[in-house]
Amino acid sequence: MEISLIKTKAYDDQKPGTSGLRKKVKRFMEQNYLENFVQSLFNSLEDLPGKTLVLGGDGRYYNDKAIQTILKMAAANNIGKIILAKDGVLSTPAASNLIRKYKTFGGIILSASHNPAGINEDFGIKYNIYNGAPAPSSITDKIFEISKTITEYKIIKTADIDISTIGTTKIGDMEIEIIDGVKDYATMLEGIFDFSAIKNLFAGDFTICFDAMHAVTGPYAKYILEYMLGAKSGSVINAIPKEDFNNGHPDPNLTYAKELVDIMYSDNAPDFGAASDGDGDRNMILGKGFFVTPSDSLAIITDNHKLIPYYAGGISGVARSMPTSAACDVVAKELGINCYEVPTGWKYFGNLMDADMVAICGEESFGTGGNHVREKDGLWAVLCWLNILAITKKSVKDITEKHWQKYGRNYYTRYDYEGLNSDIAKDLFNNLKDTFGSYNGKMMDGFIIDFADEFTYTDPIDNSVTRNGLRIIFTDGSRIIYRLSGTGSSGVTLRVYIEKYEKDGSKVTSQPAIALSNLIELSDIIAEISERTGRTKPDVIT
Ligand code: VG1
Ligand code: CO
């Protein structure tokens, strides 16, 4: 088949963010926008010809078109083989698993995660390396550099491939193996958890509601929870993936997963509730009328890891992103294992996992995962909880409250100010950075500032240095963190993370807003948020 060399003009906005390149679909649909990025990616990977890549996406609008383009470009760029999920639909953790299981060179994941989908919403693309982890900055920087000067791309002009049938096909010399996206992933999870204990749990009167939010996890959750584990049919709601996520916002938190939250706080709430995001890597955990923060969930899974067969022999360590609460640090100390703090974004956990320094990781943004893959994994987190509930026979609320009584409680909240004018947001941030020094040792509202700095992380394996977020740390362990989001597709989002630690288990109340209220006020005063942005309240509170 003939390879066409197409002339193209470079774009200047193809810098991958926290988790790949995310833009409005309409930007991706502009002439050669997707093609430029894909060619830049291929050009950045020197040893790619002849190799195998995994390909799939969260099924959102434009997923199918992008898959066809990438297949034709991959064939023109001499890629040996593509392992493609049927219909091109693959959750992010399932993609990570395929890369690892079939030892491929890497994989391309099409997703804008929890961002809304549809012709007027978002699309995204990211590259994962041989270990299944998101590409490190050394690779994403290179892709961006190439994208700024790209002048041509390669493609084989041929009819679209049928990707709806399992089997093998070809474009030119390139083999395309179309596989079931769910089976390998389900088998992998079966090898981690005590499926028979969870089956027994469901065989009794234990009930569950899993909200797939019309996104990619539906078929996975149906297969694993209902078919393999025997949860009652209908336990998984909104299970059919839609290309516009039913006009929703598949971000599993108390604001966007409202349908599930209403069910879990109703009179006949099931025993356990959970939701996942657009691409299946995030999770939210709920009990009857009870919400578990992601930071607490990480700490509780860590504390109970020995109940999960895969971790029964013990774990080397645990890691969290910097803004995530220090609840897991307290557990790690008690267990005598290491605890690492990395910048926001899952790519920073990969090296630690590869070096067997950590086995369980988490982020406050509803991401939890283990070293079974190199992405955060929504259903894995759900199964961790079900496994723990099945063995302990306790309720979600009971487990969490006992945890607070033993370890103290890290009250926590995140304020998001979305769609800010980019100059105003950057000024606010830079001003804060400039005035930081003056806060050291200062007493404010009864809190004494221990230190204020820009979080700087040196990767212990590759020595790369990342700066991400401004921190104000108080002498009692309380923290206020400021970060600018790297996943939005328009405007700037300022995230403010606020944490207060109550060590005394007998004092833990169930009213985080009260425990945090002084710090919340301080966070506005210190960064001059309302003064500079005119916003009196955040758009989203989690
Ligand atoms: C956000 C979260 C971060 C997460 C990232 C990707 O990034 O804060 O913790 O790793 O999204 O998650 P940011 O830069 O917008 O704060 V996913 O599920 O969107 O791939
Ligand atoms: Co996601």
Commentary on this structure:
- This protein has 542 residues and is α/β, with parallel strands linked by helices.
- The chain folds into three domains: 3-181, Alpha-D-Glucose-1,6-Bisphosphate, Chain A, domain 3, CATH 3.40.120; 185-407, Alpha-D-Glucose-1,6-Bisphosphate, subunit A, domain 3 (Alpha-D-Glucose-1,6-Bisphosphate, Chain A, domain 3, 3-Layer(aba) Sandwich), CATH 3.40.120; 409-541, TATA-Binding Protein (2-Layer Sandwich).
- 32% of the residues lie in helices and 27% in strands.
- The longest helix has 16 residues, at 512-527.
- It is globular and about 70 Å long.
- The mean pLDDT is 93.
- Alpha-D-glucose-1-phosphate-6-vanadate binds next to loops.
**Bound molecule types:** alpha-D-glucose-1-phosphate-6-vanadate, cobalt (II) ion
Low-confidence stretches: none
Secondary structure: number of strands: 25
Mean of residue pLDDT values: 93
- The count of helical stretches stands at 17
